[in-house]
Amino acid sequence: MKRFKRILASFLCAGLLLAGSVQPSMATGEDAPAPDTGVTINVYNWGEYIANGTDGSMDVNAEFTRRTGIRVNYTTFDTNESLYSKLAGGGASYDVIIPSDYMISKMAREGMLEELNFDNIPNFQYIDEQFRNPEYDPENKYSVPYTWGVVGIFYNKNYVDAEETKSWRVLWDEKYSGKILMFDNPRDTFGIAQKLLGFSFNSEDTDEWDQAASILKQQKPLVQAYVMDQIFDKIAGGDAWLAPYYAGDAAILVEENEDIGFTIPTEEGTNFFVDAMCIPKGATHKAEAEAYINFLCEPEIAAANMDYVGYSTPETAAKELLPEEVQNNEIYYPPQEILDNSEAFVALSDEMNLYLDSLWAEVKMGGPGETATLIAILVFFLLLYIGIVVYKKHKRKMQAA
């Protein structure tokens, strides 16, 4: 997915942050590191999605270890689907994961998440009311919001008029053929088509999904590539002129390149997403994982973290610590009318997920016709191979005779 390193022009004073946020219960003194507990938690997050000490930022994981004595083994994933596959396959053990809204509801439904003990997460008090008890976790049993944002469109100002990007229709405009990028995941890509058609992201009507697949197949000849983080190089370098992406990744590219603009489509509406912190079922260090989640919710830590990451914080207390230009930037914090015209993903039924997977394969392949052609070609070469083998065997027998 979804993450682009935010190069900071200015940063909250690290010393002030540390002095203001150290809790006596978490360290042996205001500045003294806590003794090593011998515990290491495994954290699985999106790439470029935590402040790591570069570009003058706070090293969040190192600071957590300094205060608590709990070490952090930090690894990354690139899509919700790859996260799910790894956990469902039982190939890895994690203590904290940070999936997106619809994947949280799917994993909760399948019994893959631990219920959180909020006695160990007192900083949940800072999470704004609008982010509590969300549709993907109605009783707030399994998750604590980490970031949020909306989806919009990058465009090259030299070739695309800003007015065009107020509608998703621009991604189907033939005059931009070969200069359009699309998400390389089914929920985001189908979501754009669904909004263009006036359907819900979370429809269980196969006819609506078929219609979305149909217009995505029509669009495919215009699409240069289906990509994720690769869009930054392609858009910044001028190889592509249009690409949908997440608002949290947009501001820095817009700030650094005067040729690039970013619009949140208002005609049809857009996706409102939340990534949240969860604990997988059977986590080895649940209490320590909850301490980590609590740490990330401290307003000073959340502010330092989000100032680096570039996404929006679900805590007003943290937002107020950010530079004013960030607080007032409508890419990070869109006006309420845009949020009112947005929709979040929730988990689809298992049957619909399977149906979506088949439609996505058709879109990527170009439709059932191309799939049939590919199969025919493979069969032809298989028969040709068998024919060659049979001919060689027959030739050897003739020579032996």
Task: Throw out a few tags for this protein.
single chain, 401 residues, alpha/beta, five-stranded mixed β-sheet, three-stranded parallel β-sheet, 10 strands, 39% helix, globular
Order of helices and strands: HEHEHEHEEHHEHEHEEHHHHHEHH
Strand content: 5-15%
State the total count of DSSP E strands. Answer: 10
Helix content: 25-40%
Unreliable residue stretches: 1-29, 367-374
Structural class, from helix and strand content? alpha/beta
How large, in whole angstroms, is the Cα Rg? 24 Å
The DSSP helix count reads: 15
Mean residue pLDDT: 88
What distance separates the N and C termini? 64 Å
What would the principal axes of the Cα set say about the shape? globular
Largest sheet, strands/sense/barrel: 5 strands, mixed
Summarize this entry quickly.
Helices cover about 40% and strands about 15% of the residues. The chain has 15 helices and 10 strands. Strands 4, 7, 8, 9 and 10 form a 5-stranded mixed β-sheet that branches. It has a 3-stranded parallel β-sheet with strand order 2-1-3.
Descriptive report:
The structure is a single chain. The chain has 401 residues and is α/β, with parallel strands linked by helices. The chain is 39% helix and 14% strand. The chain is built from 15 helices and 10 strands. Strands 4, 7, 8, 9 and 10 form a 5-stranded mixed sheet that branches. Strands 2-1-3 form a 3-stranded parallel sheet. Strands 5-6 form a two-stranded parallel sheet. Helix 2 (60-68) links the parallel strand 1 (40-46) and strand 2 (71-77). Helix 5 crosses helix 6 (206-219) and helix 6 runs parallel beside helix 14 (350-365). The radius of gyration is 24 Å and the shape is globular. The model is unreliable at 1-29 and 367-374 (pLDDT under 50).
